[in-house]
Amino acid sequence: MAQAPDRSPWRTVVWGKEKRTEYLKAIKEFESASSSVKKARILLLGPSRVGKSSFVNSVFSIFKDRKNNPADCRDKTSEFCTYLIKGVEERTSLNLALCDTMGLSEGTGRGFTVTTSSASFKFSPTSPMTPETAGYVAAPTLNRKIHCVVYVMDASTVSDVSAALKKKLREIRQRVTSLNIPQLVLMTKVDRADPSVIKDIRNVYESEIFREKAEQLAALLACRIPESFQ
Fold it and tell me: Which GO terms describe its biological process (predicted)?
């Protein structure tokens, strides 16, 4: 008789309503360690159609306790949008801001680029920012900087990332690392990578397919996979 596959989790995660409540409370009560920072700005980076905007709207829905509500966008352009998450009290917002960007492009000098200026970013589809660019900030204040970068990637297409896009992702990661900006990775569309998690998302860390995808992405970005998530 064939032995049943090992379904023990390869990453420890605490699930449940109590842990969810704990996380939501921590986010709602978050305050920056610096009084000069009004909002901690979280920059979402990733190729087009990986689900960055969908993730923003999911976050918005969680904190509004209802679905299909567009997030509140400030500083909106065709290439960049800062979302303020509504707070518990009326007309307030959390001390966190999600910054959505245009999708990363494979071409050199196209799409998102990082300049040599501290925490300065450019979203032009044709050329990177220079000191001569209108609106260029040579020495942005701590409040205007990006405080965390999240790489958003489609789990189902990780193995299909082109060499050109891999090169751009690594260049961006190296530059962000040199700026000492914290970085995280968010994998979307895990159900497309492994349909077995559709019935219960808690199976995601028992999926060898998803583990392989996570390892591929970790190698692509030269980062490590946490053993636990408490």
Answer: immune response
Q: How many CB atoms lie within 10 A of CB 145?
A: 17
CA distances from 196 to 43, 67, 190 (A): 31, 25, 10
Measuring CA to CA, which residue among 228, 219, 223, 101 is closest to residue 158?
219
Distance of CA 145 to the CA centre of its chain: 16
Question: Minimal CA–CA distance to 142: which of 35, 36, 31?
Answer: 36
State which of 68-77, 158-167, 219-228 shows the largest mean pLDDT.
158-167
Q: From CA 56, how far away is CA 165, in angstroms rounded? A: 23
Q: Work out the angle at residue 43's Cα, subtended by the Cα atoms of residues 38 and 48, and round it to the nearest 5 degrees.
A: 150
Domains and CATH numbers, the chain: 34-189 (3.40.50)
Give helix then strand counts, H and E, for the chain: 5, 10
Does residue 135 surpass a pLDDT of 70?
no
In this structure, are residues 225 and 215 in contact, taking their beta carbons and an 8 Å threshold?
A: yes
**DSSP letters for 107-150:** STT-S-EE-SSTT-EE--SS----TTSTT--SS--GGGS--EEE
Which has the closest alpha carbon to 204: 3, 4, 11?
A: 11
pLDDT recorded at residue 78: 54
Mean pLDDT, rounded, for 31-54: 90
